[in-house]
Amino acid sequence: MPPSAPAQAESLRPRGKGRPRTAETAAPSLVELLNLVRSETATTRQELERHSDLGRAVVADRLTMLGDLGLVDESELGTATGGRAPRLVRFAARKAAILVATLDQTAIGVGVADLSGNLLTEHHEAADLAAPPEQLTERLSALFRWSLDRHTAAQGVWGLSLSVPGAVQSGTDGAFLTTTPPIMPAWEGFPLVESLTRGFGVPVWIRSSVETMTMGELHAGAGLGQRTMLFIKVGRRIGAGIVCDGQLFRGAQGAAGLIGSLPVTSGGQTGSLDSLAGSEMIQREGMAAATDGRSAVLADILRRGGEISAIEVSQAAQVGDAASISILATSGHLIGQVVATLANALNPDLIVLSGSIVQTNDILLAAVREAVYGASHPLVTRDLRIIRSQMGSSAGLVGAARVASEALFAPAFLKEWVMQGSPLGHPAFSDYIGRLADIPKAAPAAPPPPSRQGKEPLA
Prior knowledge:
By secondary structure, this protein is an alpha/beta fold. It has 3 domains: 5-91, Winged helix-like DNA-binding domain superfamily/Winged helix DNA-binding domain (Arc Repressor Mutant, subunit A); 95-212 and 395-436, Nucleotidyltransferase, domain 5, CATH 3.30.420; 224-390, Nucleotidyltransferase, domain 5 (2-Layer Sandwich). 43% of the residues lie in helices and 17% in strands. The chain has 18 helices and 14 strands. Strands 5-4-3-6-7 form a 5-stranded mixed β-sheet, sandwiched between helices. A 5-stranded mixed β-sheet has the order 10-9-8-13-14, sandwiched between helices. It has a two-stranded antiparallel ribbon with strand order 1-2. Helix 12 runs parallel beside helix 14. The longest helix has 25 residues, at 322-346.
C-alpha cells in the first residue's frame, strides 16, 4: 500500500526536532488520525499506525495533541491479547453538541445530538409553516434554547442543521451556509440562516427532509450496514432518497430523487405522481367517497363534523372500508411503478417507505410491494426487502445531525480548525461572524414549557 499524503508529508520532515510549529505541517496528520478514530476504523495506537502509515512517534505525538484539544480520549483499556492491555482511543463525541430541527408542513421537531450525530434529546409539536417566518424562527430558537437547558454539552454548540421541505441546492462539500437558499416560497427573502447564525454563533447547514430522513434511516434505522438503499417518503409530495455504495447521492444540484414530478397515468388521467398518488389525491378521493355514499365510514366522519384528510382515509382502509382501500391501493400501485423503475436501475438491497400514510396502515405498503415485485427483474427482487420505516419523526433529526457531523469533520473543513480545537475558530467562519456583527441581534424568546408531544432525552 503506498503511503498516505499525510504520511508522505511527515516522512519529509526532519525527525527529532519536536512538534511541528505550524498548522500546515501538523493539521494533515491530525485530520487523518482524528477521522480514523471518529469512524472507529482504528481504536488503538497500533491500528492507527497501520492504517495511517505514520510512525509510532508521530502517532503518539498527534494523539497527545488531540487529547490536549479534547477531541480524543485514551482513558479506557482494551482487551489484552497475550501482553499488556492496549489503551483504546475514543472520539470525544460529547465534547460539544449539534442542534437539529425538522420543519414540516404541519409540525416542527428539535433535538440535541452529539458530535457523532447520535440524537440525545428530541421534541415535536404542531406548527404551521404558512405562518410568518419571523414567528416560526422565534419559536424554533426558543425550542433550541429550551433543549439546551435540558442537555448541555461540555463545550457548548458547534453546529446547527435543519431539515426542510423541498430540494435544497447543493454547494461545496462541508461548507456552511452564509445565505439562506430558496427552501419555501413563503420564506423567500427571509434571512433564516443569518438569523440562526447570529442567534447561536455556530455554522448552519440545511438539507431536504427526504435527504435527512434517508441519512437517519441509513445510520440508525433499517439501512444500517446497507450499501444500496432507496428511501421513499410519501406525503403531499413524494420523494426518493438514493444511497449508493453507502453514501447519499444528491445529484449535480442536490435535486436527486424528485420522483413526484414524474408523469403517471391512472384511470385514463395523466399527471404527476404527486398529483395522482400523493396525500392530496387521497384526501380528495376520500372526500368524494364520503359525499357520494361509497364510504360509510368516511361519511360518518363528515356527519359528526369531522374533516376528511389522508389520515382518515388511511385509518378507514385499515378497518376494512372498501372505498378507502381502493384509494390507497391506487396510490400504492402508482408509486410502486415508479419505484420499480428505480429498483431496476439501482438494484438496491432495501427499499424503505415512510410518511404518516404508510405508518397508519398496511394497504399502501402492500400495493407498492406488489407493483415493484411485479415489474422488476428477478435478480433485482431476489433478495430485495421492502419495509416501512420504524424511526418515524426521529429519522429527520438523526439525519440532520449526521449532515452537520460529516460537514464539521470533512477533511478540507477540519484541516482549517483542528489546531484551534473548535470549528468556531475556522477562519472562514470567524470572518462570516464578523460580517454579521453589525446586524442587530433579536432579543431571545422565552423558553417554552414542556409539551406532551415532546420526548424525553434518549441518553
